[in-house]
Each structure stands twice: as structure tokens, then as C-alpha cells.
Amino acid sequence: MSVKSGSLYSRIPRLEQIPFLIHGFGIRKWKEDDYQNSPERKDFKPVFLDQIHSDIIQVIDNIPEEKLKGDAMITGLPFLLLIIKTADCLPVLIVDESQKMVAAVHCGWRGTSKRVVQKVIQRMKDLYGCHPSSLLAALGPCIGHECYEVGENVYHSFEQEGLSTESFQNHPLRRGKYLFDLKEANLSQMVSVGVEEKNVFSADICTHCHENLPSFRRDKDKAGRTLSFIGMSS
Ligand SMILES: [Zn+2]
């Protein structure tokens, strides 16, 4: 991961090599000015979702007139910026270099238990013939597994969906509690549908430990959100 000094976003070097792609993961709370004052993004139309911790995927093939509900977007259109807002949840950005498709996904534990990222990859494959093995994916800053305590309900929701529970560890001190590795759970879903682990890049920052980043667990309603984006210029 690279963070240029003075930058508001961290970037994945492998994705920076793609000439038609822009992307970034916010490294502090989002302010509208940060976004509007960027020359890099001035030609792009931002697309936000009304995020609801679902597995609803919006395929954007024309510019939406109103805010769409859901937790993932896929597009092949240039000059759109797919934007995900998070505070502890995992933002995932995906690109298919040869088919020129991009996706952005919001993965909290609920979306992860509904396999949202897995469904996005399946949809890219079914609709556009993307090969999972040639997709590149970037996992942004999220709450780290050492800080992410969850209860039995979360564990059981994974069990009920027939998902692996390998990303849960018994809490060392608290009975009936687990530490949940959100990043690992999503990585394993991606690999299970053919994404290659070597093509998944990760920003190893825990939002809960990093005071500049918004953390809902730490700051509750005062947390604010950070913003991650991906788009294509041609
Ligand atoms: Zn942490």
C-alpha cells in the first residue's frame, strides 16, 4: 500500500499501474471538500449507495437519477466513481483489466454472512464474462481481528449460511464471545469462487486502532465515515 504525503487516500501500487484506473481508500474522515477539490476526479460522476448491510448489487449501466439501495456496484462505464462509505466495515475494490469492469463492495459482518463479495464476482462472471482468476482486488482499511469482538449471533449466522467459521476465534477472556477476522472471511469467499490470493492486495490498517480513521466501534454515532472509490477514465 502506498500513502503519498499530504494525500487523503492510500492506494494499492499494483492498481496504480493500470492506466485507465483511479482508486483510493480514505485515510481519515470524509469531508465533501476533500472530494470536490481533487483535479484527478473532477471529470468523474460520483455514485453513492444507500448502504443497508445487504447482498444487493447494483449494476450501473446508466447514471442513476436517484440514490440506489444496496451494498455493491458494478460498472463498465467510464467516468463514474463508485463510492463506498465505511467506519470499521471492509471496503473492497475490484477491477478486471481486460474486460474493463470495476466493482466496489461494502462488507460488514452482515453483508459477509450474505456472501456479498462472492455474489459480486459471480455476477461479473455471468454478465460480462469476467474470469475470476484474472480479477484484481483490493481490501481497504477495516477493523482488525484483534479488535473485532462479536457475539454468538454473528457466529451462528455464518453457520446457518453454511459458511466457514474459520475466521472466528474464541475470545481469550470472554466466554461466548469471538474475535472475528472480517478481512480473512471475505478473502476466503473470493478465493472460493476462483479469485487468486496473489491478486488480492490489502491495506493492513485497523480502523479501531488508527485514530484518524473513523471507527464505529470506538466512536459510535460520532464516528463519521471514510470513503473509498474506484473508477475508469476510458
Ligand atoms: Zn485494532
Any overview of this molecule?
The structure is a single chain. This protein has 234 residues and is α/β, with parallel strands linked by helices. It has one domain (9-142, 200-232): CNF1/YfiH-like putative cysteine hydrolases (4-Layer Sandwich). 22% of the residues lie in helices and 29% in strands. The protein has 7 helices and 15 strands. It has helices at 13-16, 32-36, 109-113, 116-128, 152-160, 182-192, 216-219; strands at 9-10, 21-26, 45-50, 57-60, 68-69, 72-75, 80-86, 90-96, 101-107, 136-139, 149-150, 168-170, 178-180, 200-202, 226-232. The strands form 3 sheets. Strands 1-2-15-7-3-5 form a 6-stranded mixed β-sheet, with no helix packed on it. Strands 4-6-9-8-10-14 form a 6-stranded mixed β-sheet. The longest helix has 13 residues, at 116-128. It is globular and about 55 Å long. The protein starts with 8 loop residues before the first strand and ends with a strand. The structure holds zinc ion (ZN). Zinc ion is lined by residues 144, 146-147, 206, 208-209.
Compact description:
This protein is of the alpha/beta class and 234 residues long. Helices cover 22% and strands 29% of the residues.
Which class do the helix and strand fractions yield?
alpha/beta
How confident overall, as mean pLDDT? 92
Number of helices: 7
Run of helices and strands: EHEHEEEEEEEHHEEHEEHEHE
Architecture (CATH level 2) name? 4-Layer Sandwich
CATH-derived topology: CNF1/YfiH-like putative cysteine hydrolases
Bin the helical content: 10-25%
**Total domain units:** 1
- In terms of quaternary structure, the protein is single chain
Uncertain ranges: none
What is the CATH class name? Answer: Alpha Beta
The count of strands amounts to: 15
What do we call the CATH homologous superfamily?
Answer: CNF1/YfiH-like putative cysteine hydrolases
How far apart lie the N and C ends?
A: 24 Å
Q: What percent of residues are in strands?
A: 25-35%
The ligands found in this model are: zinc ion
The strand line-up of the biggest sheet is 1-2-15-7-3-5
Overall 3D form: globular
* Largest sheet descriptor: 6 strands, mixed
Give Rg in angstroms: 17 Å
